Amino acid sequence: MKKRRRTRSERLTNWVLLLLTMSLIATFWLGYLSILHEFTGALPWVTTALTVLDGILGKVLDSNIKKSQAENTKDGIIYEAAKAKNFERDL
User: Fold this and answer.
1) Taking the domains of the chain in order of start, what are their residue ranges?
2) How far apart are CA 89 and CA 85, in angstroms?
């Protein structure tokens, strides 16, 4: 079976999700250490970093959804290709 190559947007989405997951784990770890050592100060840089990552994630996922909508609507790329094959699937 031939392995499907991932598109650039799929790879970008995976990297952003991985980065967000790692930052959330690091944030929870810092929170745990703060409680453990009775730290009562503020950690504004954590909030700033997560806000930026959330913004990037929102933009990447939004662009992926718009791309999929454009391809899968009538007169879209995938719809027309399937119509040309009489909507038969390659197995």
Assistant:
1) 8-84
2) 8
Name the least confident of 7-11, 12-16, 53-57.
7-11
CA atoms of 26 and 18, how far apart (whole Å): 12
Provide the 8-state DSSP code for 14. Answer: H
CB 16 within 8 A of CB 60: yes
Please report which confidence band the pLDDT of residue 76 belongs to, taking 50, 70 and 90 as the band edges: low
Residue 81 burial (CB count, 10 A): 10
**Centroid of chain to Cα 10:** 8
Best CA proximity match to 75, nearest among 84, 66, 88, 64: 84
User: Under a CB-based contact definition with an 8 Å cutoff, are residues 4 and 51 in contact?
Assistant: no
Question: pTM to 2 decimals?
Answer: 0.53
Cα distance between residue 77 and residue 35, in whole Å: 53
